[in-house]
Amino acid sequence: MGRITPRQVPARVLGKYFARRLVDERVVLKPKEMIAELVREFGIHIDYSFALRTRNITIQMVYGDFDKSYAQLPAFLHTLQLMNPGTVVDMEIASDGQFKHSFLALGACVNAFLQYARPVLVIDGTHLKRKNKGVLFVAVMKDGNEQILPVAVGLGPIENDESWTWFLAHLHMALGDIDDLLIISDQHQSIKKAVHAVFPRAMHGLCYYHLKNKMTKRGKHVTTLFQEAAYAYRKDTFQESMSSLEQVCPNAYQKLCNIGLVHWSRSHCPVRRYGFMTSNAAESLNARLLWMRRLPVCSLFEMFRSIIGQWFIERRVAAQGLNHVLIDGIALKLSGNIDKGRSYTVRPTTLATLWKIEVGREVYMVDLQNRTCYCREFELDLIPCAHAIAVICCTGGAIYDYVARYYKMESLVGMYNSVIRSLPRPEHWIVTDTFTGRAVLAPEIRRRAECPSMSRA
User: Fold this and answer.
1) Is 10 exposed, middle or buried (0-12, 13-18, 19+ CB in 10 A)?
2) Rounded to 5 degrees, what are φ and ψ at 124?
3) Residue 150 phi/psi, 5° resolution?
4) Is 32 strand, coil or helix?
5) For 369-375, which contacts have Cβ atoms below 8 Å and span 24 or more sequence positions?
């Protein structure tokens, strides 16, 4: 290679040279780095456009052709569904044969959410960085150990009412009706319409951080008051922060009231938020899938399956190696509450289930039977607060019995006890009868011939 001129070096030859690095999905080929390496190793000088074309050819050699991947997608999804029982897949093709939507919910993830996870979903959409335009839709949950786990993913042409309704309708088909379900997202209007149409019984909560970012120009004092109001457990504490906010910035106060207090505040939400105040879970998953969003559609889904399968193995081994009753984070929080509760004075009341806690000039009423406390932490998080622990210790009860099952080690072990099976080679994929004889074409919408940015400005 060093003895020939740059014009004689085909991009496919250079692609074979760089292809060995893409075996590791964490590696990102950058055109400038490719140019510098070719100069350093072989003395070959290429321009940026040639390096960009080489990079695209390298991706195609390792992960397949972008356009042909759409034609393979029906067989891939059908085979994945057969290999993993309980998996829900679907695909929509336009009348002219072009790809429109696709949906994937692994059976292991669906079972983990329905049986062991808190009834909270975080949804978001992020743009693909590959040859064809598109949007990746994700629905994410968290286990009791605050580890993210996707429930479902989908692909669509654009983030609009039709695409979000299609994705959430299939998510509802996979999960069914869930009591006290909370769906958290940003303020995208298409999400709001789709949630109300598809999940009429669910509560739509807004991400506190997105609302906070819109108030940064109003001053740090305004954002501090808003944070105090959003995270407040008690309604009187919430009202104090909102009254101060009204005096400092009436416009911000009015906007928050127009949005609706039930959508962004913990104290007014009709269902439990379990500490889910932001959409950070979905944003974290989008960041993890950053490189995969450059790949052909089949490779994107396959690498997604591979990562989820690896997470199941690692977390299952880690959970089975512990003999604790509670998850470490919850045990640490309870330990702090126990230390606080030792100094509290517990007094009985006329009601057998109601106890009075005196903390300085404050008085808290604790009801162990209904699992409530005046501070509302016990009621909203389902974890005994310091006042409840003082009563439990006074009555001789077991603290573990008052912790929700989501935070117990047996739930964490059960969540990751399933196995996600890999697929055979592409020549052994099973073609579904639904799309027999129909060629799935790549969408016509394409990006401009330039290097797309990997992250936001």
Assistant:
1) exposed
2) -165, 165
3) -70, 140
4) helix
5) 371/402, 374/234, 375/233, 375/234
Alpha-carbon Rg for the chain, nearest whole angstrom, is: 26
CA distance 54 to 18: 9
Please provide the DSSP assignment of 286-333 as one string: HHHTTTGGGS-HHHHHHHHHHHHHHHHHHHHHHHHT---SB-HHHHHH
Q: Three-state SS across 356-409?
A: EEEECCEEEEEECCCCEECCCHHHHHCCCCHHHHHHHHHHCCCHHHHCCHHHEH
- Please count the other Cβ atoms lying within 10 Å of the Cβ belonging to residue 23: 8
Nearest CA among 116, 181, 114 for reference residue 147: 116
- Spell 54-72 as b/e; 16+ CB within 10 A means b: bbbbbbbebbbbbbebbbb
Strand 120-127 to strand 88-93: parallel, antiparallel, or no bridges (unpaired)?
Answer: unpaired
Q: Which of 289, 293, 294, 302 has its CA nearest to residue 79?
A: 302
Sequence letter at residue 113: F
For residue 55, name the pLDDT band (cuts at 50, 70, 90): confident
Mean pLDDT (the chain) is 87
Residue pair 87/104 in contact (Cβ under 8 Å)? The answer is yes
Question: Cα–Cα distance between 348 and 390 in angstroms, integer?
Answer: 12
Q: Which residues pair with 364 in a beta bridge?
A: 357
Token pair listed for 209: 């951080």
The DSSP bridge pattern shows strands 120-127 and 135-142 to be antiparallel
CA–CA gap between residue 265 and residue 259 (Å, rounded): 11
Return the pLDDT at 447.
52
Number of CB atoms found within 10 A of residue 317's CB: 10
440-453 b/e with 16+ CB inside 10 Å = b?
A: bebbeeeeeeebee
Pairing of strands 88-93, 362-367: unpaired
- Mean pLDDT within 281-288: 89
CA–CA distance, 228 with 213 (Å, rounded to integer): 15
Strand order in the sheet with 345-348: 345-348, 354-359, 362-367, 372-373
Q: Is the pTM of this model over 0.70?
A: yes
Give me the count of residues in the chain: 457
